[in-house]
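User: Show me a protein chain along with its predicted structure.
Assistant: Here is one chain, sequence first, then structure tokens.
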Amino acid sequence: MLGKIREKTKIHIKKFFGSNYFLKLLISYFFIILSCILFMCILSYSFLHDSLNNQSIESNNRLLNQFKNTVDSLVLGSINELSIKIYHDSSVNPYISYYF
């Protein structure tokens, strides 16, 4: 009795997997899963693109501000030193003292 049931189930399994219905079912599941994966890829790409774009803009702004502060401190520091040197040279050199 148990042997007949096993044989019948084996026959049904072979018919199911060998049938055209199983192939259609497999293809439809494949396309459903593929469409979900594609949709998630598009959403994640859009999110990551916007996020990366914003982060790069913020990083560039910080870098430009740092560069601006560095250049300003160097230029302003040099101006102070240069003005002191010119003042000192004007007291020593009569040609420069003409302009003061």
